[in-house]
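Appendix B, record 7
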Amino acid sequence: MVCQPLISLKKTPMQFLILISDRIDLVTEALDFRSFDAPAGERLDVAIALSLSLSRSYAKDLVDQGHVQINGQPVGKASTKLKGTEIVTVVIPPPKPMLVESEDIPLDIIYEDKELAAINKPPNLISHPTATVRTGTVVNALLGRMDLSKDNHFDPASEDYRPGIVHRLDKDTSGVMVVAKNDEAHRRLAAAFKKRLTEKEYIAIAVGFIDDDVQIDAPIGRHPTNRQKMAVGGSNARTANTYFRVLQRIPGHVLVKAKPHTGRTHQIRVHLAHLGASILGDEVYGKSSSLIGRQALHAYRLTLPHPKDSHAITFTAQVPLDMVEAWLKLGGSWPPKGMENL
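Structure tokens (predicted):
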């Protein structure tokens, strides 16, 4: 397939703010507007990649982020098939600063030794940098505070810069997260997660009803139409197993403890939604809530073999105030019976 040559290339001034060392500079930057004749029968992201000499993953990101129009109309699906009569316009945003640097981000360090550190990750904090997010992550918070594993193997400008990270929590999930401080500890901890030698316990507020004790074994894969979501039985589904125990019931809601035996993306959120009881405040698998500004999910406890001697070590982080207050406003009581240390 041969794409038509670029037929226009123009720049439009755009002013934006960059925060540098406690002062704000007003900078004039140009956005690239690039247009080309659509090749017939090609996927949109593939056509963009070939016509503009971009990687396909970056082309897909541009579509997902709303930077692409067909005949002047926004289009949101990278898989859109082109007829060959359209004009595709792509906005190339200004480049983001690429280096990942240490930041003074408040972080509750539960435990630290020469091999690892355990933190209580707050909500609204991403675990590690991505191609488009280079600040405000757990990695940014830890750089400069402690040694992190594999740092010498990564380029801080790399899209995949994640020193110390052996497992992740979703951005709006709070709770216990462990990072490795040297390469050998990283290898052993990563192996422990892969071999399922860890035990994870989460606390969640769910909207709806589930039985007192539920063991769900339902494979999870990518959602067939929304690539930002996961789904039971989605594409390339992998085994997923979660145990749920109800800690307390009130009309319309349950407080549950979840123990995932596998580590699939969004596993607890997907499994609860599959049971008809999505997590309170989960805008992806349920709906937002006026009671809490994120999904009410907290990684309460994590047990794993210590990388130095393989002896089991357990880290615990109390359920945060926003979840406690949400549960009380719903009419529940705190703490639930038998979980006084929660």
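Remarks on this record: Residues 183-194 form the longest helix (12 residues). The chain has three domains: 6-92, 96-195, 196-342.
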